[in-house]
Structures are given as structure tokens and as C-alpha cells.
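TASK: fixed-backbone design
INPUT:
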């Protein structure tokens, strides 16, 4: 039980921080603001984070929280292909509407220069577990080409999402992220479908 509460406290801090970053900007958000919004304590904040800057790398937790909320809403009659597109659309809509572009850019650039753990690539994340579960389902029901492995499909999907997000950051959000992804991602995934 304490472990779940600890995870809940960390997620409260992360959610509060990103909400505030979006509303008032990273520079204008203080640790005190984050503690107040999260209804936690300064001690809790510093238990999980060395400072506000460390929160930039926590965006993957927010993404995983979104996936955890979406997982139970996936209709059983939806194909694996459709589930992957649905997850992408919902996450990218969340990013467009609640993640500041400069912080998303900082996250991606930190992943390129970071020594040690790269949290976006952590295979233990909810993201990868959910993608894997959907891919396994798609292979089991004969939807995906058996000449390809589950790992290859998951890696290609994640790579495509990262590429689209990186390009969106490079282009300073000049196009609708979810709309562009909806036109591009199906083309990639169709290459993994079983050939008749």
C-alpha cells in the first residue's frame, strides 16, 4: 500500500507541475506553486526531485498516466491496428492541448544528451507494455504479418511517434500534430499487416 501512495504522490507532483507549466510557463512556475497545486509537501517534492529542472524529464510519466487511463477504454471489438491509431491520436491530442512546446523540445534534447537512463526508451514503461500487449493481440488474431516480430512492430511504432514529435518540435508546431500523425502513422502500420 505505501508503494502505491508513493507513486500517487509522485504523479500528483508531476501532473501539477505540467499543468502549471502549460498555464503559466516553466519560468513562472515555482516549486511552491507545484507543491500547493499537488496538495503535497515540499519534503515530498524534494524526495522525488532535486529541483524544478528535473521535472522536464518526467513528461514520460505523464504520458504513461494517459495510457493507463486509456487502456481500459479500448473497445474489445476494435482491431489492434485501430487501437494503436486510437492511442496515438489521444496522446497527441493531449500533447497539443496541454504540453508546452518549449518543454517538449527540452525533453527530447535532454534524451539526446543524457548520460545513463533515457526514460523515453525504458521498456518497463506503461507505454511499451501496452503497445506490446496490443501487438501480441494483433499477431494472435492473424492481423499482423507473422514474418515480423512483436518487438519489430513495437519499435517501428515508437520510432515513428518519436519522429513525428521531433519534427513537430523542429517545425515549432506549425501543423496539427494529431491530424498529421493520423495521415502518416496508418501508412507505416499497414506495412505490418498480414498480406492476403
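OUTPUT:
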Amino acid at each position: 500500500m505505501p508503494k502505491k501512495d508513493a507513486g500517487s504522490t509522485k504523479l500528483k507532483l508531476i501532473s501539477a507541475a505540467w499543468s502549471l507549466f502549460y498555464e503559466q510557463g516553466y519560468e513562472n512556475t515555482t516549486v511552491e506553486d507545484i507543491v500547493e497545486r499537488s496538495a503535497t509537501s515540499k519534503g515530498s517534492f524534494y524526495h522525488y526531485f532535486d529541483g524544478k529542472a528535473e521535472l522536464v524529464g518526467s513528461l514520460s510519466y505523464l504520458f504513461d498516466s494517459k495510457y493507463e487511463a486509456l487502456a481500459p477504454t479500448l473497445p474489445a471489438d476494435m482491431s489492434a491496428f485501430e487501437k494503436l491509431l486510437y492511442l496515438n491520436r489521444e496522446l497527441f491530442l493531449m500533447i497539443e492541448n496541454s504540453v508546452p512546446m518549449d518543454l517538449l523540445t527540452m525533453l527530447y534534447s535532454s534524451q539526446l544528451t543524457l548520460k545513463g537512463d533515457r526514460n523515453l526508451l525504458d521498456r518497463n514503461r506503461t507505454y511499451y507494455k501496452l503497445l506490446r500487449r496490443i501487438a501480441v493481440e494483433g499477431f494472435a488474431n492473424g492481423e499482423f504479418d507473422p514474418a515480423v516480430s512483436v518487438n519489430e512492430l513495437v519499435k517501428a511504432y515508437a520510432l515513428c511517434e518519436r519522429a513525428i514529435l521531433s519534427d513537430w518540435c523542429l517545425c515549432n508546431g506549425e501543423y496539427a500534430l494529431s491530424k498529421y500523425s493520423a495521415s502518416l502513422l496508418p501508412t507505416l502500420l499497414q506495412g505490418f499487416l498480414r498480406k492476403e
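COMMENT: Residues 167 and 173 are 9 Å apart (CA to CA).
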